[in-house]
Amino acid sequence: REHDAGGEVVLMVFSEFGRRVRDNGTGTDHGAAGVAFAIGDRVNGGMYGTYPSLKPGDLSQGDLAPNYDFRGFYSTLADRWLGLDPVPIVGGNFEQMSFV
Hints:
There is one protein chain. The protein has a domain at 6-68. The chain is 16% helix and 12% strand. It contains 2 helices and 4 strands; from the N terminus they run ββββαα.
């Protein structure tokens, strides 16, 4: 803020893996769904997707069901923030999000 550059910066925080819902006796194993944050003056704040359900019927092979493919998160930043073609970066076309 001191240099009035808040509109030029997006901070991305992304967990490379989630955790399984159920304990395996010695803790929890790696799961499928994770968490990501985008922080910055030009980020459209809010929660994207739906709050995860812990009901057994809503799980995906024992894991929380992801709302978005993480490559869509990366694709959004590559395309809408950096002005890059995201396809070769993420290896295909993935649903982009409206956070930037």
